[in-house]
From TrEMBL, chain A:
InterPro entries for this protein: Glyco_trans_1, Glycosyltransferase_grp1, Starch_synth_cat_dom
Domain Glycosyl transferase family: 242-405
EC number: 2.4.1.21
Keyword set includes Glycosyltransferase: yes
Entry keyword set: Glycosyltransferase, Transferase
Reactions this protein catalyses: [(1->4)-alpha-D-glucosyl](n) + ADP-alpha-D-glucose = [(1->4)-alpha-D-glucosyl](n+1) + ADP + H(+)
Domain (Starch synthase catalytic) ranges: 2-225
EC class name: transferase
Domain of life per record: Bacteria
Name of the protein this chain belongs to: starch synthase
Automatic annotation (TrEMBL), chain B:
InterPro entries for the chain: GH57_Enzymes (IPR052046), Glyco_hydro/deAcase_b/a-brl (IPR011330), Glyco_hydro_57_N (IPR004300)
Keywords linked to the UniProt accession: Carbohydrate metabolism, Coiled coil
SUPFAM superfamilies: Glycoside hydrolase/deacetylase
Residue ranges of domain Glycoside hydrolase family 57 N-terminal in the record: 6-287
Family membership noted in the UniProt record: Belongs to the glycosyl hydrolase 57 family.
Pfam families for this protein: Glyco_hydro_57
CDD domains tied to this protein: GH57N_MJA1_like (cd10795)
PANTHER family the record matches: ALPHA-AMYLASE-RELATED (PTHR36306:SF1), ALPHA-AMYLASE-RELATED-RELATED (PTHR36306)
Coiled-coil residue spans: 402-429
Name of the protein described by the UniProt record: Alpha-amylase
Recorded superkingdom: Bacteria
Organism: Marinifilum caeruleilacunae
Length: 437, 434
């Protein structure tokens, strides 16, 4: 079976869970015999791990007759503009420059370099919508060049690409919902993003959701047939942390960590308020908010206002080993997400023996038992949980031990098998349908 | 005869390095040596050294007729010593002429006057000691960090024995009154208050090279005309500015050095002004009125208040957390700890946290090492957290030490008791035998 997969990010060039999940899943899929994957991302840098599959950068594809085609394509998929703060998530490094810039220049044509190749930035930012449609356009070319039996598109950014490929090759389309705009926006959905999402789901032959939480949203908010939507939980890459050399923990206090984008979706403000509650009861603790995002400044100000800034630290965006170092130093990991389709990061924390507190509004809470679950808005419960773990070693040890066991049993290989089943059933019913017609 | 008083402020912030959360507890060094050294070298070459040379020539040439005043922060002196000792030497040369006055201020360019009187007094003394050791004369006039002044601050300063104080001729304080007179402190009239003529001062300091300004180019002839245009009855004109005006804020190409070179001659020959130092002004003129300044003022920004350093959540949190540590720092009597604590008090750190300049951060972004006020705050608080840890550790060590000493003493007490008993026994035996 040959799979044409459209993604948006790939390690080491990732800015969030989407890239991590794509990588883990394809790695798992590569263990399934009888599967060939062509993974397409905009802008292949060349230093990605290519042992597992063939990686085709959309910018490595030569495009002919760009101008006329683009015109045609645009009229087909309608021309889109998006207000800046509503894009899925911005590259943390680029956030500041990004927020002040115009979203979409009124260029009539895409920029093409000398060899007729489209230039992709490969990063989330101002011209995201333009990127998506360039990507979709290139997708149709790629689908002609690479034979395949099924198309698999990750998240809304790639839906147009998946649709375009399907139109050219006529093969069945599976879309993978890692998040919806209802999660990202907290309810006030951007109609243009919604439209793309709905379009993708309608065109899909099968929809994979990363949790029942997300599955319900897909069914209820996007009006999809429940039979079409399957839940496949994410997993986590096993990493042997012992191999790496951690830096020394310089502080004696317990460290409670928030690690993620500092945006409304992730609920950073509840973490700050809970920290304040805990600090009222004990001074033997420090809080760390690692990451960056549009709510960072607000959080800094709030910490200063509460007078806890000497116990509440900000690290900015962490990369590579720093994430590992941060987890190694942590005694509690908190993910207070307001709406989290899945949430891989708590699994990574548990892997490195960190007791974890997650919000009930996360997909990962559906499969974890050895983590404390609280409502994201329940600051008191969150503070209680933090206090309990840092005060009572027995509790913390229990979570460490059992949590590690639990997480180690979550394997991408299993998730991949589930996805493989989805491919099979999709192709089957697709063949049936074509025969009927 | 009227007097004109030239006073220059010399200061370079000691910038903190990028101090990350991971450094807390692991690394106790806070300063960005590379940036500090390269900026100090650059400004020494472009400003301090050439300007000092010009002033020295002028002072020798117009012996007794040309006078200037300086204040140099302790932080700047420390950095001169480390990175540009020849600048200190050139200041010493200036001091030798006898026509240069060095003013007192806080050692670390701090805002201690707003927070803690004892701390303020001790920093001012530390600075005056340093100036006396360097230039051989103990300062008699005071200028506070950023010319921060209020009636209360004036009272503290006069208690310390200083004769005069410099501050801003802020419009909202003076109202219809003119800065071109000598004033006195509202609580203790013995302390003379010199007010900066911000119009004439900023004509040089800010507008000199502004080509859009209708008076551009500013020549010494024009400037002296303006001096002569001042009201007949007014006594003094106080021109206070950053020394970095010469060659740094106003580049060499703007002709600022030529302006400086020609100004004394022009004033001496073509006006009825004489040059005077702040202390001479305080001694020779009668104050015309009290200056009523119930709330602190400064020379910064349009508002001339404290909002550049204090007032937003970030600044207040950092400022309060810093000064909470004072008792612990003093009790530990550790030289390096005290030094770091004083360096952390520099007003620059709080200046970088100012959020009111998001739109036109012109002045605040000058050599500002941070991307945003939040960035500045995060970095500063990380440093402060490490500093708190050091205090805690040192206190633990001290406590351990005293525990050890107690144990040792108890041991010795037991020994003494034992010997005494033996002695008594022996005595008793001896008596029995007798």
């Amino acid at each position: 079976m040959r799979v044409l997969m459209f993604g948006w990010e790939f390690p080491p060039h990732i800015s969030g869970g989407l890239g991590t999940a794509c990588y883990g899943l394809t790695k798992g899929l590569s263990k399934v015999e009888d599967l060939d994957i062509v993974f397409v991302v905009p802008k292949a840098y060349g230093d990605e791990d290519q042992s597992k599959m063939q990686l085709v950068g959309a910018n490595g594809v030569t495009i002919n007759q760009v101008q006329t085609h683009v015109e045609k394509f645009k009229s087909k998929h309608t021309y889109l503009e998006v207000d800046s703060q509503l894009v899925p998530y911005n590259d943390p490094d680029e956030y500041y420059t990004f927020s002040s810039r115009d979203v979409y220049g009124k260029n009539k044509f895409f920029k093409v370099d000398k060899e007729g190749k489209l230039e992709f930035s490969g990063k989330y930012g101002a011209n995201l919508i333009e990127e998506i449609y360039k990507y979709a356009y290139v997708a149709s070319t790629i689908s002609m060049d690479h034979d395949h039996d099924v198309i698999h598109a990750h998240d809304w950014l790639c839906y147009p690409a998946g649709i375009a490929a399907k139109e050219v090759s006529g093969k069945p389309l599976v879309i993978h919902v890692h998040a919806t705009d209802f999660d990202r926006s907290g309810g006030s959905v951007n109609p243009k993003v919604f439209e793309i999402e709905k379009m993708g789901m309608d065109a899909a032959d099968k929809i994979i959701a990363v949790s029942n939480l997300t599955r319900n949203i897909v069914i209820e908010k996007y009006g999809q047939d429940p039979d079409k939507v399957v839940t496949v939980y994410n997993a986590v890459e096993p990493v042997s942390f012992e191999e790496k050399q951690a830096i020394k923990k310089g502080v004696k206090e317990k460290v409670v960590t928030f690690l993620g984008r500092i945006t409304m979706q992730k609920g950073p403000e509840y973490f700050v308020e809970a920290a304040y509650q805990v600090l009222k009861r004990t001074s033997n603790v420090r809080f760390v908010m690692a990451g960056s995002g549009d709510m960072l400044e607000k959080m800094v100000t709030r910490a200063a206002q509460l007078g806890i800034a000497d116990k509440f630290h900000f690290t900015g965006f962490l990369k590579g080993d720093d994430v590992f170092n941060m987890l190694k130093m942590s005694d509690v990991y908190v993910m207070p997400s307001v709406s989290e389709p899945f949430g891989i990061s708590p699994l990574e924390a548990m892997q490195s023996n960190v007791p974890t507190i997650i919000s009930k509004q996360s997909g990962v809470s559906e499969i974890l038992t050895h983590a404390i679950k609280v409502d994201y808005w329940d600051i008191d419960a969150m503070a209680d949980a933090i206090y309990g773990i840092i005060r009572y070693d027995s509790l913390s040890n229990e979570f460490k031990e059992k949590g590690k066991e639990e997480v180690d049993s979550l394997k991408w290989a299993n998730a991949a098998l589930n996805v493989y089943d989805v491919y099979n059933s999709t192709i089957e019913s697709f063949v049936e349908q074509t025969n009927q017609n | 005869m009227k007097s004109i008083c030239l006073y220059f402020q010399v200061h370079q912030p000691l910038r903190l390095r990028r101090y990350r959360f991971f450094d807390i507890g692991n690394n106790h060094y806070y300063y960005d040596d590379y940036t500090n050294e390269s900026i100090m070298r650059k400004i020494s070459d472009e400003c301090y050294l050439p300007a000092n040379k010009i002033l020295l020539d002028l002072l020798l040439e117009n012996k007794g007729k040309f006078k200037v005043a300086f204040s140099i922060t302790g932080i700047a002196i420390d950095q001169f010593e480390q990175y540009a000792p020849e600048v200190l030497d050139s200041f010493k040369e200036l001091a030798k002429t006898g026509d240069v006055e060095f003013l007192a201020e806080t050692y670390s360019h701090s805002l201690a006057s707003l927070k803690n009187k004892d701390e303020f007094v001790s920093q001012v003394q530390e600075h005056s000691d340093r100036i006396e050791a360097l230039f051989g004369v103990r300062p008699t006039t005071f200028r506070n960090t950023e010319l921060v002044y209020s009636d209360g601050i004036g009272e503290m300063v006069s208690e310390m024995g200083y004769k005069g104080i410099l501050t801003e001729g802020a419009k909202h304080i003076l109202g219809w009154k003119s800065p071109n007179y000598l004033y006195c402190n509202a609580i203790n009239p013995k302390l003379k208050v010199l007010l900066r003529n911000y119009k004439l001062s900023d004509d040089i300091a800010f507008r000199f090279s502004a080509e859009g300004w209708k008076e551009w180019p500013l020549t010494t002839t024009k400037f002296v005309e303006w001096l002569n245009d001042q009201d007949e009855k007014e006594d003094v004109v106080n021109i206070f500015m950053d020394y970095e005006t010469f060659g740094e804020h106003q580049k060499k190409e703007s002709g600022i050095f030529e302006f400086l070179e020609n100004l004394p001659k022009e004033v001496i020959l073509k006006s009825n002004y004489q040059f005077a130092t702040p202390t001479e002004l305080a001694a020779n003129y009668q104050p015309i009125a009290q200056a009523h300044v119930p709330n602190p003022i400064s020379w910064a920004d349009e508002e001339r208040d404290l909002s550049a350093w204090l007032g937003n959540n970030l600044q207040d949190e950092a400022f309060n957390k810093l000064y909470e540590l004072r008792d612990d720092v003093l009790a530990l009597k550790d030289e390096r700890l005290l030094k770091d604590w004083r360096y952390l008090q520099a007003s620059d750190h709080f200046y970088y946290m100012c959020t009111k300049f998001f739109s036109d951060g012109d002045v605040h972004s000058y050599f500002n090492p941070y991307d945003s006020p939040y960035d500045a705050f995060i970095n500063y608080m990380n440093v402060l957290s490490d500093f708190q840890l050091r205090i805690k550790e040192m206190r633990n060590v001290l406590a351990d030490k005293s525990d050890l000493m107690e144990a040792e003493l108890a041991e010795k007490d037991a020994l003494i008791e034992k010997y005494r008993k033996e002695l008594d026994d022996l005595k008793a035996q001896f008596e029995k035998a007798e």
